[in-house]
Write a structure and sequence with these properties.
two-stranded parallel ribbon; 9 strands; single chain; globular; Peptide Deformylase; alpha+beta; five-stranded antiparallel sheet; binds zinc ion; 185 residues
C-alpha cells in the first residue's frame, strides 16, 4: 500500500520520534513493506517513519535503485530500527541532497564522512558498524528525521534565505510532486 508523504509544514516532521519495541509494535512488517513500496513509487533512496506520519524511530534505505551505477549496493534494502550514531569522523564531505518531504529543493549539505552506528535490523538483530560514503550520508539524512530535523536545517543563513519563500509556499500546499502527499491543501 502506498502511504501519503507528509510534506514540510506537517507537525509530525518536527517531532522527536519515540523508540519502539520491534517485537511488540503492531503490524511492523506490514509497515516496512508499505514504506518500501512508497519509497519505490516516489523514486527516493530513504524514507523515515515520520515522513509517513508516524513519530517512531525507524527508517528504511533502498540503495538497490542505484546499483546500476554502484554494483556494491545490489540488493541493498534495509530497515533501521531505534538507530543511534555512536561516533562521527572529523572528516566531512558535501553532497547535494533532496528530501521526499521537501519536493523541488536540492541543496549541498556538509556531513561527517563516516559514522559508527548501532541499530536493530529487519531480522530484529542488533547491529553496530561503521558506515562510509553514500550509505553514511543517507543514514545521517534519515536519522535527522527521527529528531525532527531536516536537511534544510543544515544550510547556511544565506542559503536558507534563498529557499525561504519556497518553504513557506510549501507549508501552504503550494508545490508539485509526482507522488501522493499529505499537505495543507
Ligand atoms: Zn528526508
Amino acid at each position: 500500500m502506498i502511504l501519503p508523504m507528509y510534506i514540510f509544514g506537517q507537525p509530525v516532521l518536527r517531532k522527536v520520534a519515540e523508540a519502539i519495541d520491534p517485537a511488540t509494535y503492531p503490524n511492523l512488517q506490514e509497515l516496512i513493506t508499505n514504506m518500501f513500496e512508497t519509497l519505490k513509487r516516489s523514486e527516493g533512496v530513504g524514507l523515515a517513519a515520520p515522513q509517513v506520519g508516524l513519530p517512531i524511530r525507524m527508517f528504511i534505505i533502498d540503495l538497490d535503485v542505484i546499483s546500476e551505477d554502484e554494483p556494491a549496493y545490489k540488493g541493498y534494502l534495509h530497515t533501521f530500527i531505534n538507530p543511534e550514531i555512536l561516533e562521527e569522523s572529523e572528516e566531512t564531505s558535501s553532497m547535494e541532497e533532496g528530501c521526499l518531504s521537501i519536493p523541488g529543493i536540492h541543496e549541498s549539505v556538509k556531513r561527517p564522512e563516516e559514522v559508527l552506528v548501532k541499530y536493530i535490523d529487519e531480522n530484529l538483530q542488533q547491529q553496530e558498524r561503521w558506515l562510509t560514503g553514500f550509505e553514511a550520508r543517507v543514514f545521517q539524512h534519515e536519522f535527522d528525521h527521527l529528531d525532527g530535523k531536516m536537511f534544510v536545517d543544515h544550510l547556511s543563513a544565506f542559503r536558507k534565505q534563498l529557499i525561504k519563500s519556497k518553504l513557506i509556499a510549501m507549508t501552504k500546499g503550494k508545490f508539485s510532486a509526482s507522488y501522493k502527499c499529505k499537505a495543507n491543501r
